[in-house]
Amino acid sequence: MLWDYWRYERRLSLQGSQGVVDYAKSHGLYVPDDPEGVYTSPASMVTIAQDLLKVMEEESGKDDVEMTIEWGHAPVDPKGAQKWLKGWLGRGYPLIVDVTTLTKKDAAVGAHFVLVTGVNPEGDVYFHDPYSGGDLNGDGLIDQKELGATRREVSWSDFYWAWMHNSDAKVGGAGWWLLFRPIEGE
Q1: What pLDDT is recorded for position 79?
Q2: pLDDT: is 182 or 5 the higher one?
Q3: What Cα–Cα distance (Å) separates residue 83 from each residue in 15, 64, 65?
Q4: Which among 178, 167, 150 has a CA at the least distance from the CA of 17?
């Protein structure tokens, strides 16, 4: 998602989100039939990001901005987490975060990664969600056939709960984030 969102103007070998998924599958970093339901852990996302950064550096050329990645866990306090998130977004850095998937019926069906791109003055969070195609077949679940990354907006309280209480907590997903940013001048 971040690859598509932020580096859209580049013509790199890993074209779009599907190229990233294919790469991750071929390197054992994404396991679509994982019986534990983890598929990709935050640690694997860091490895994927580091590998993508190498591809970006190799293929973008010397004139491009040098980039780095950062990752960690947001403050647990809701107000502190919101201020922290707004700080990064205000500087122009969208973040990948690990959240619980909610269906139209508000049933939690697992965790996944979304790209957070903004917070409005009322505190609503804007993000791109690969599972936002909706429950097309009416079974209460969103499955692979129903994917379609779209921009969504939810209240801060709903977003914060989904971020801090996701089902990837056992692999470090609660409050987890990752971003790409330019290396600041020396």
Answers
A1: 94
A2: 182
A3: 34, 31, 27
A4: 150
